[in-house]
């Protein structure tokens, strides 16, 4: 079963430690030396910018990887929101 969830990456808070890259391969290093989210080309995501942060909505089975990446971020630049968070 797939779950819809959002990953919010505050790039202004990112300091390039890249702990997220080791937990979720959708996080990649951008040309500016900070993390960014690459959802791939499989159509399971929608990416937008909101309040200076990257917000990507996924409908895939990788929620656990996203949560691990968020927990690993030493500057708390990553937040994962599920439908339960909005209730």
UniProtKB/TrEMBL annotation:
Pfam families in the record: Fer4_15 (PF13459)
Name this polypeptide is given: Ferredoxin
Organism: Halobellus clavatus
Origin organism lineage: Archaea, Methanobacteriati, Methanobacteriota, Stenosarchaea group, Halobacteria
